[in-house]
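Appendix B. Raw example, untouched.
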Amino acid sequence: MWQPQTSGSRKIENSKSVLLSWLESRSVAAVNFFHSRMERVITYWLGSMLLLALAKVAVAAGDKTQVASLAAMIFPFLAVTMAPVLGYRIASSCFPHRDLSTQPAIRLCRYGKWRQLDCLQARRNGLFGPTGLMASLIAGMLLNIPFRSGEFMLAMPAIPVGAPAWANTMLTMMTLDVVTLNFFYTVCFVMALRAAPMFPRMLVFTWFLDATMQLLIAQHVTQAGHLPPQVASALHSLLSGNIEKVLISTALWLPYLILSERVNITFRHRTRLN
């Protein structure tokens, strides 16, 4: 009489096992891709962004536009393009692959009961490494860069010399925002991929910086004055949306960064006491 239920339970367990195994294999494949194909990704990124930047300047430039004006118009787009590349290069040199990094002297995350592991013990643990759910966080940080850059490219025209003060201020602040956050999210991406112990702290700092930059943009653009109502409305929606994204990301991922066994083994070299 109980056999069908037992058989059904086994099927469910087998299905779960197959699904988890498939997800794990996909996460491993994604991490391996990030390790081996980033140079190709950078090449595609540079090519597509440079073409888009040239197209935007070509549309905005007139027949009598001087070279200095063209350089000033294209500079923000070049800065946005190069920021993640520089972030990747700098972070890669600071956090070599398979580097045996030491733990920070001061432990900030003290929630839970843990047993400390040395570097080799942590690396021998089956949960060590940025796979599983951690791979989703890594991919999300990387995808945030083209999405943020795409928003900037679509929202900001190539502003010529002599534009109103509010336009120049908005361009400057928006460029600073995208350049800064592209740089830091790329650094976080590399730190997570290379299992750098300071990654959780850097990501929390970047979230805080992201939200702060949105407030600074609103403050400086408002102070510039004479902002057209339609521009003010669009800017408000954009900045509010960015802050909401940061808050959602923080709410989703901060508990994971604190409680996850994989995160604690990989970045804090400790395992939970049973």
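End of appendix B.
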